[in-house]
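Instructor's aside before we start: the two examples that follow are unrelated to each other. I chose them only because their records fit on one page, so don't look for a connection. First example below.
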Amino acid sequence: MGRKFFVGGNWKCNGTNEEVKKIISTLNAGDVPSQDVVEVVVSPPFVFLPLTKGSLRSDFHVAAQNCWIKKGGAYTGEISAEMLVNLDIPWVILGHSERRLILGESNEFVGDKVAYALSQGLKVIACVGETLEQRESGSTLEVVAAQTKAIADRVSDWTNVVVAYEPVWAIGTGKVATPAQAQEVHAELRKWLHANISPEVAASTRIIYGGSVNGANCKELAAQADVDGFLVGGASLKPEFIDIIKSAEVKKSA
């Protein structure tokens, strides 16, 4: 089964009204492969969701960077899945390492968030990944398997889930997992899905790579058999994001 290449742009906590308009203008003018070759989703901060949704080209979609674990209510500062659905935002990023590490979101908490968001009709980019200490101690696969299991324990339908493998040591550091390192973890994750969920889910679920992806390294990473796209951080704020989207052509011609 062919898995459509997926490129997500995580703008993180960046941007002003004017900067966001400029990014959108660059994206709208970009010459990129068609929707049958690549699915593109950009994720601005909450306050810029309506602006982005209202002015972004129709073949690109919009994601929130987080949402609450259950229905809204007395949860100051939180945004519920229902609110995102109400704004017609189709995607949400959950379990990003910055939230896991800085805000202490546990595997179980992330798993509950993913299940609730899916139950409300959102599509989810679910993030997993190990720290430098975990990689150096040889526990990478154990860590990402535990993170994935916490989602699998709560989710039965994986149709609307994209898994983003983001080695924490490579996020924003300029260090990138080599194509071989990325492929190794992606292949092991797919094996885990095959053994613990089903061969069908393993074959159809897109596993994307995040961690200092840029215009210079994206083609080589995209050529790896089990790398189905990217979750891009800093480079998604720059014109080179268009080049990263274009790396989908590598898969098309493979």
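Example two begins here.
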Amino acid sequence: MIGVLAILFVWSKAMTFIKKSPPDIPVVEIPEDLALNVSRALRNDVNRSLHLLREIAMGHDLKKFLGVIAGLWVLSEVGSCCDFLTLIYIAVLMIHTVPILYDKYQDKVDHFAGKAHTEACKHYQVLDQKVLSKIPRGPAKTKKT
């Protein structure tokens, strides 16, 4: 990109020295309605994420809390192995290949995901019986209407 910009700059300056017209470079603009639609969609995603984080921080859902903690831990482990640009490359690659592979091997993936879900539920039940059920809890608060 820098090389192309430098070549166009030198070409434009050279054309003025030899009294020719500079290269015709088209004007590129983002339409306002497209920018508004993208910003609205981004705002909705950010608001949903903030709502999810608020619900987790208030302690309403233990499963979501443990999922977020596990996800952040995995992200930190992967981030310690490679830099941000490599993570972006990996994310773009996965965004383009995973849906195609899922469509091709949907039956096998669904079967494996079902088995993994049952195993995760078994482990959660063990965790609930041995640890979570022993945590003392206060009386449930009544909701104000």
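The radius of gyration is 27 Å.
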